[in-house]
Amino acid sequence: MNENKAREYNNMGNLFMQKKDYNQALDFYLKAISLYDEESVFYHNAGVCLLILEEKQRAITLLKRAFEKGTKIDETELYLVSALYEIENYSDVLSFKEKRNNKYYIDINMLKLKSAIKLSKIQQAKKIINTLKMAGFNSQELELIENMLWR
Q1: pLDDT string in tens for the chain (151-residue length)
Q2: Which of 54, 53, 63 is nearest to 33 (CA)?
Q3: Which of 30, 63, 106, 128 has the highest Cβ tally under 10 A?
Q4: Most distant CA pair in the chain: distance in Å?
Q5: What number of helices (H) and strands (E) belong to the chain?
Q6: Residue 123, Cα to own-chain centre: how many angstroms?
Q7: How many CB atoms lie within 10 A of CB 14?
Q8: How far is residue 95's CA from residue 84's CA, in Å, rounded to a whole number?
């Protein structure tokens, strides 16, 4: 019973997200979580709202919770790593273990590369560059970073 009501609240949150009423959407997502706290999508959705509302620390907490609940949403990984990078938590960005088949694998590893540089972990940065190249990624930005590191 609570699970069905929670899903209704989540759907209401989705409607408010479409209307760009993020505070109202967040309220519904949090209600959904309070009724049924086993659904990872509820945490993901609330985390996204909080990112939009610029409440990154709260967003990180909820996005991490989505992982604990077994999220299958690729964007959750990207949003979490991006938020960690934005609050300058470079160590957590570097230690994040993304799924290899995540469609945002390259984006996540670029944030890891930039974090390694910010922390002056040049060897780790070089390994990330090699990982990106082995995944078939190449860009002007990557080449510039590579040239800077191998000087």
Answers
A1: 799 999 999 999 999 999 999 999 999 999 999 999 999 999 999 999 999 999 999 999 999 999 999 999 999 999 999 999 999 999 999 999 988 788 999 999 999 999 999 999 999 999 999 999 998 898 898 888 888 887 7
A2: 63
A3: 63
A4: 63
A5: 9, 0
A6: 25
A7: 15
A8: 11
Instruction: Give the CATH fold of the 1-72 domain.
Output: 1.25.40
Contacts of 18 (CB under 8 A, 6+ apart): none
Give start-end residues of each CATH 1.25.40.10 domain in the chain.
1-72
- The two tokens of residue 114 are 């930039």
Best CA proximity match to 32, nearest among 20, 19, 43, 16: 43
**Residue 124 in tokens:** 């780790």
Cα–Cα distance, 16 to 22 (Å, whole number): 7
Q: Which residue has the tokens 């985390």?
A: 47
Sign of CA dihedral 15, 98, 66, 70: positive
**DSSP H or E run through 78:** helix 74-86
* Tokens 């590579």, residue located: 146
